[in-house]
Specification:
Blueprint: H1 2-23, H2 29-41, H3 45-60, H4 66-86, H5 100-120, H6 127-139, H7 143-158, H8 164-186
Length: 198
């Protein structure tokens, strides 16, 4: 389990650092807030990520089991460590700023696969997952709607430093990554047997 969490964290943060940070295409949720805080307040991504995640976990604690929280905390640590690791090196991928659609699609693939691997292990890549679950359970919304709500709020804030056209490409990234997270989470997974009384 820890191996897959580490692999997922490495894939996700590699894409965010080498594609999203370099091209100005952002994600929603905590990832987007991390990039927002890094842009305007110059807070290192490896520092702001656990702060935001912890806030979301505290807010959502009543809706989540202890095992989920423990796994998610481990995942958050791996994400922070890999952020710090990638920032020690120059960008490892070509600058796709002139090809925003390619950047949006490729970034969405890295985030979707990486986060999907983590979610598949029963945790989350960050507090945005916990926040979305909390919103979903508190309002009765579908989980996808809760994710969309948080993503759109963050993307709205990101308009303060990202042009509208790039935000449009960020929406492409969010949609693709969401689909991939769902696909990776459920890939060849057997449905849980129904229990009596359900």
């Amino acid at each position: 389990m820890l191996l897959w969490i580490a692999v997922g964290a490495a894939i996700c943060t590699f894409g965010i650092h080498n594609i999203h940070s370099q091209t100005g295409i952002t994600e929603g949720g905590v990832i987007g807030m991390t990039l927002f805080a890094n842009k305007w307040f110059h807070i290192p991504k490896g520092l702001v990520t656990p702060i935001l995640d912890l806030s979301c976990y505290l807010l959502a604690f009543r809706f989540l089991g202890g095992k989920f929280i423990r796994i998610s905390m481990i995942s958050t640590l791996f994400v922070s460590l890999f952020y710090d690791l990638w920032e020690q090196f120059p960008y490892m991928l070509p600058d796709l700023s002139d090809y925003p659609l390619a950047a949006a699609l490729l970034g969405g693939v890295f985030v979707g696969i990486g986060v999907g691997l983590i979610v598949r292990q029963g945790g989350s890549s960050g507090g945005d997952d916990a926040l979305a679950l909390s919103i979903s359970r508190g309002t009765g919304w579908r989980l996808s709607r809760a994710y969309l709500f948080t993503d759109l709020v963050v993307l709205g804030l990101s308009l303060s430093y990202i042009p509208v056209i790039r935000i449009a490409f960020s929406v492409v990234t969010v949609m693709l990554s969401s689909l991939l997270i769902d696909f990776v989470q459920n890939f060849r997974r057997q449905p849980e047997p129904e229990t009596a009384g359900e």
